[in-house]
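Tokens in:
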């Protein structure tokens, strides 16, 4: 299926590795012009070269709203505008509620809430003016069912989800859609670094995943690309779990 986004200008945040990279790869395959970022110039350059398709790269610090805004503005300058924005970024440190100090919350909100807000605010004026745009934010399954030991992430990303759904309602009539994707466990360096690529630790982590395996990052990227497609123009305000069936509630 042709997603109808060849030539569209896509800014994909934190895309030198993992699910951000997989999302950028899927958009490049659809013929989109892509600009990615990383906090490290060497990683960003290497990822852009590997992606091909004329992918451009920037160095950006996505730990707060200033760097997040700078990335979108820089991508728009490189490409002449941003039609597609894939929001992504580094998550907060782990910890349980009763042990995380109050002053740790501001940094978490900067990373996983205010940086999301900043990217969207930087991208949406141009999208609305042109009457077309796609925003897809990579958040977490912890928004639906809070993860143990991730109090900061659960809190900040839940706030981001509320913002995204509110924004979706406000700009839907302008031809701009806003959705989020909530990944479960995928075969990325981060996940295999924690759980391993096989063995009892990984088996325990997959015990509650009906699919019985780690997700394929390429499949994840394909879902992101679809949400950016012409065909997904009537789909907005959704939060899509991509988790092999791990989330089991009715709503």
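Residues out:
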């Amino acid at each position: 299926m042709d997603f109808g986004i060849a030539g569209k200008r896509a800014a994909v945040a934190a895309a030198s590795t993992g699910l951000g990279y997989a999302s950028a790869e899927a958009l490049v395959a659809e013929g989109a012009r892509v600009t990615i970022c990383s906090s490290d110039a060497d990683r960003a350059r290497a990822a852009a070269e590997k992606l091909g398709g004329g992918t451009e790269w920037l160095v950006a610090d996505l730990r707060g709203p200033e760097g997040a805004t700078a990335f979108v503005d820089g991508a728009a300058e490189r490409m002449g505008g941003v039609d597609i924005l894939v929001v992504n970024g580094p998550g907060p440190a782990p910890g349980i509620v009763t042990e995380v100090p109050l002053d740790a919350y501001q940094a978490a909100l900067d990373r996983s809430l205010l940086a999301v807000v900043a990217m969207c605010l930087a991208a949406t004026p141009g999208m609305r003016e042109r009457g077309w745009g796609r925003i897809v934010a990579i958040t977490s399954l912890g928004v639906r069912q809070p993860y143990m030991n991730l109090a900061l992430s659960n809190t900040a990303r839940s706030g981001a989800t509320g913002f995204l759904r509110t924004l979706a309602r406000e700009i839907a009539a302008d031809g701009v859609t806003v959705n989020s994707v909530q990944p479960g466990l995928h075969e990325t360096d981060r996940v295999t670094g924690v759980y391993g690529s096989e063995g009892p630790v990984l088996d325990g982590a997959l015990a509650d995943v009906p699919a019985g395996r780690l997700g394929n990052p390429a499949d994840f990227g394909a879902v992101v690309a679809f949400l950016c497609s012409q065909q997904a123009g009537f789909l907005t305000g959704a939060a899509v779990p991509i988790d092999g069936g791990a989330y089991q509630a009715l709503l």
